[in-house]
Amino acid sequence: MLTKAKIKQIHSLKMKKCRDEQQLFVAEGNKLVADMLSSFRCEWMIAKPSWIATQGEMPVNELVEADNDDIRKISFLKTPQDVLALFRYPSYRPEEADPSVRLVLALDGVQDPGNLGAIVRIADWFGVEHIVCSPDSADVFGPKTVQATMGSLARVKVQSMPLENFLKQDVPVYGTFLDGEDIYCQQLTPHGIVVMGNEGNGIRPSIKSLISRRLYIPPYPATRTGLQSLNVAAATAVVCAEFRRQANSASA
């Protein structure tokens, strides 16, 4: 049964303060929730009987069957789907994001939930399993960001910590700049840290000083004028693609 107390609790999870206090976040949608079940502890779920029948046994602490009206009362989506679930925050250790053995993305003040969600999807596509966000970045467990990850949050570990400390490691630290070196003419390492900056201001000065390899994504043709930069998610995709291309070429 969907109670008034549960409706109030779910609505409160729109706010980061409440998510952090309860250590819970909301996920909605048939595929998204199914993906999340393999990676996060599900405390509560409400779903249509038709969806439940397709899933088999699920690791859920509490399961509530419901119809469209019930789901609509608690959904954050314009068009509610068949299932909504509350998941427990994961517990990751900072040392898991070890850039000495893998490529790690670091996001410096990426504040748009859609951009952050897209970057998580891009990381998943290119096999980047760890993202470190500055504390002023968008909250990866906010409803809009979770939805934008399209389930990739189940496979990419996202942590928040001060980047100044994280970047002070004996590994290559890459960043994208308009005055950087052409990324297609640089030898890139299969490990290290790639820093992507804020949507409007780029990488902040205190972080710039810690970057050892400055990269530039050139337009095509190189003489093309007009746009000065790419959206941060698009730039992340280009950078990850080139890192992986070079890694594949080196191993061939």
Tag the structure with descriptive keywords.
single chain; alpha/beta; 6-stranded parallel β-sheet; 10 helices; elongated
Give a nutshell description of this structure.
Helices cover 32% and strands 21% of the residues.
What does this structure look like?
The protein is 32% helix and 21% strand. It is α/β, with parallel strands linked by helices and 252 residues long. It has a six-stranded parallel β-sheet, with helices on one face. It has a four-stranded mixed β-sheet with strand order 1-4-2-3. α6 (113-125) links the parallel β5 (103-107) and β6 (130-133). α6 runs parallel beside α10 (232-251). The model has no long low-confidence stretch (mean pLDDT 95).
Summarize the SSE layout with pairings.
Elements: H1 4-12, H2 16-22, E1 24-28, H3 30-36, E2 42-47, H4 49-52, E3 63-65, H5 68-74, E4 83-88, E5 103-107, H6 113-125, E6 130-133, H7 143-148, E7 157-160, H8 163-166, E8 173-182, E9 192-196, H9 205-208, E10 213-216, H10 232-251
Helix pairs in contact: 6-10
Number of helices: 10
Tell me the overall shape: elongated
Helix amount, in percent? 25-40%
What is the structural class? alpha/beta
Uncertain residue segments: none
Spatial strand order of the main sheet: 7-6-5-9-8-10
- Give me the oligomer status: single chain
The rounded Rg comes to 20 Å
- The N- and C-terminal alpha carbons lie at a distance of 57 Å
